[in-house]
Design a protein that fits this description.
The chain is mostly helical and 309 residues long. Helices cover 54% and strands 4% of the residues. The protein has 13 helices and three strands; from the N terminus they run H-H-H-H-H-H-H-E-E-E-H-H-H-H-H-H. Helix 1 runs antiparallel to helix 2 and helix 10 packs across helix 13.
């Protein structure tokens, strides 16, 4: 057994044949980001554990539905089950590619139970500006400001930020090309503040020893910065900049989408910039927009707030 599978997978009571299929599935995902690959294999291993000694290729939709119901009964929410079901579909697509006898994907038609909609946490425009305006000139501070300015300016995902190469950003034309989910490329505008921060970072980047020739953002050692390092630096800077809530990279992406939508009202443009395959994924920001308007109304209108009984 190689070490492609996550360590926690190996503790599950999984049949040997199913374990071999999981291993092969994990190897087929080698081109995917590390987090995506680990999540897919972890979710597929839950299915294999539920199957016990039954062959994964022979499971029926009824059995998979029973597994989902069991997981739901153990406390998994609809959002988690939907993600798990997506991983199962990907696993069975792989099996179909490997075995011509598997004619149907047993996940077809299965749906996870709905979860209550939770609005993503966002920063106010003032908080976002306070966070990204880092007033420091040491090398890593220049890098961090460029990172955060770009994340807020263009709404990039964490993996997209960490994986960004020098030749993917065009400062002259103010745009960045990124590979998003599903290996889909999109072009996103880069604002003036982010372009200025990146121009300030590039000379400092050149001073780091053994700099990765491709990576736009690198660490002190010269290697490409990792997603975990970005998360840590952002959380640390949020505290230094006086923000009271925990800030993570996806919050900057949410804030970008919410603020652009509040200003433009163009849901389709926000969808394109975020790289959402379906506009339904983007519509959550319309709820945020109304929430913002309702708060502004309550603050401004003299008869907006009801007196408690």
């Amino acid at each position: 057994m190689t070490k492609t599978l996550p360590p926690d997978t190996l503790s599950h009571p999984i049949a040997r044949a199913n374990l071999a299929q999981l291993e092969a599935f994990a190897q087929s995902l080698a081109a995917r980001p590390d987090n995506t690959r680990a999540a897919y294999v972890r979710d597929a291993s839950v299915l294999a554990a539920a199957a016990g000694e039954s062959a994964l290729g022979g499971l029926t939709p009824r059995e998979l539905r029973r597994f989902l119901a069991s997981l739901h009964g153990r406390g998994l929410c609809g959002r988690s089950l939907a993600r798990m079901l997506s991983s199962w579909r990907a696993f069975y697509r792989y099996l179909q590619e490997q075995d011509a006898d598997i004619k149907e994907n047993p996940c077809t038609g299965l749906r996870a139970p709905r979860s209550a909609r939770r609005l993503p946490a966002v920063l106010s425009p003032d908080e976002a500006v306070r966070l990204v305006e880092i007033d420091a000139t040491d090398t890593l501070a220049l890098r961090d400001r460029a990172l955060f300015e770009l994340a807020y300016s263009s709404g990039l995902r964490l993996a997209e930020l960490a994986g960004l190469d020098l030749d993917r950003i065009d400062l002259a034309h103010g745009e960045v090309r990124v590979w998003g989910k599903g290996a889909k490329e999109r072009i996103v505008p880069v604002g003036a503040a982010a372009r200025a921060a990146i121009r300030a970072w590039l000379p400092a980047r050149a001073t780091l020893a053994r700099a990765d020739p491709k990576a736009l953002f690198i660490g002190r050692s010269g290697a490409r910065i990792s997603p975990r390092a970005i998360e840590r630096r952002l959380a640390d800077w949020a505290v230094k900049q006086g923000l009271i809530q925990h800030v993570h990279p996806h919050m900057l992406r949410h804030s970008f989408a919410s603020h652009v939508l509040q200003s433009s009202g163009d849901l389709r443009a926000v969808q394109e910039m975020l790289g959402h395959a379906s506009i339904a994924s983007t519509q959550v920001y319309t709820h945020l927009d109304f929430q913002y308007l309702a708060q502004a109304y309550d603050r401004a209108h003299p008869r907006a707030k009801r007196k408690p009984r």
